[in-house]
Amino acid sequence: MMTEELVIMRDRQAVTTSLQVAENFEKNHQHVMESIRKLTVENSTVKNMFVKGFYINKRRQEQPMYYMNRDGFSLLAMGFTGKKALQFKLKYIDAFNQMEKQLQQQKPLSLPEQIQLIAKGYDGLSKDVEDIKNRMGLPGNMAHTFTKKRNAKIINVLGGKKSNAYCDKNVRAKTYRALFSSYRETFDQDRYNDLPMKDFDKAVDFVNNWYPPFELQQEIRRANAQLAIV
Question: What's this model's pTM, rounded to 2 decimal places?
């Protein structure tokens, strides 16, 4: 890994991340996170050296991490020992020096430039949020809402909770399977909760407009007709 990749610029400050540190020092990221949490609990001054952030893992899930400045890195890496650890410490120090030198050489921004930079920051944040919505599955509250709408649709299709079709476990299970089969074919998802947030409204409309295939409709009618005869 190249030295310049070890340190990045964030909010016009040279920082690195807990993820980078874990990777380069060959440590478990959760252990690095725990070490940072312990440091920030022990001394309130240390909190200013670390800022919480997040990254998207390979499974398209949002995961926590920390950004840290030079002081935060120095404090965290103090306990890292060994020849390889020393080599990476020196690389990080060099990377921080290079980044901070670049920052010092930059001329102060004029007020219009500052306003433009802030605007770009908000625009970038908006794009990041939209990207997360496009890739992440349904959060708990949306998944719960979708489940309620799906169950309400099944109850309606079967003729109500007291209907013979609904009380027949076999018919009810067939109806749930038929709905899921259509859902999977439409949205190319193997689980309801894996649906991207951006498709939530489409999925709700899909459920509201879904009806069982003809043969299953006939089976539901026969089951409910038997109830009427009794």
Answer: 0.43
